[in-house]
Specification:
Rhomboid-like fold; about 5% strand
């Protein structure tokens, strides 16, 4: 399922590239505007089913090559192990619920923005939260700026620092009154939702043994 999610994201991004290059920037902008999540538009049209569909569709849109490749790299590293413990069907449900929770967190924090929100980051943040609960003693290879290109670090250290950075950046964005940019609160909200859901799933016996 992790591979299928990566393929779906890359496929949609390829379609975005085609719209931008083969058809025209206006068509691409229209496509993104229609399927991205826009907080003010969603809140102002709560009875519009099309707007609620953007809560899911925005997870498969990306704003550039670095955006999609970075997200897919994180999903590839962390997603497979979480999927192994949940099974493909439960994992897909978990992924979509985490992405939804992430979107809700961002909308709550910035309900008046008209900036389109796109990307799988919120759902993948949920995967990171689940990984922290399921594999607290694991090690991962991480890029560590200013030290060495790649360094093995404890997953718990990497993930806790990653979450702290999202929170710090989100608080900084609020303090500066920034509208748009990186959806820091979607990242933080997705992470917390993922950790909470997998904690509950373990208690319910939905998580496979090691």
């Amino acid at each position: 399922m992790t591979g299928l999610l990566i393929a779906a994201n890359l496929g949609v991004f390829a379609w975005e590239l085609w719209l931008g290059i083969g058809v025209g920037d206006k068509q691409l902008a229209g496509f993104v505007t229609e399927h991205a999540l826009v907080a003010k538009r969603l809140i102002g049209n709560v009875g519009d089913g099309q707007q609620w569909l953007t809560v899911l569709s925005h997870m498969f849109l990306h704003g550039g090559v670095a955006h999609v490749l970075g997200n897919m790299w994180f999903l590839w590293i962390f997603g497979g192990n979480v999927e192994d413990r949940l099974g493909p069907v439960k994992y897909l449900l978990f992924y979509l619920l985490a992405g939804t929770a992430a979107a809700v967190a961002q909308v709550i924090v910035d309900p008046g923005t008209m900036v389109p929100m796109v990307g799988a980051s919120g759902a993948i943040s949920g995967v990171l939260g689940a990984y922290l609960i399921l594999f607290p003693t694991a090690w991962v290879l991480a890029l560590v700026p200013w030290i060495v290109p790649v360094l093995p670090v404890p997953a718990v250290l990497f993930l806790v620092l990653w979450f702290a950075f999202q929170m710090w950046s989100g608080l900084g964005a609020l303090a500066a009154g920034l509208d748009g940019g990186v959806a820091w609160w979607a990242h933080a909200g997705g992470f917390v939702a993922g950790a909470a859901m997998i904690w509950w799933a373990k208690g319910a016996g939905w998580v496979r043994k090691k």
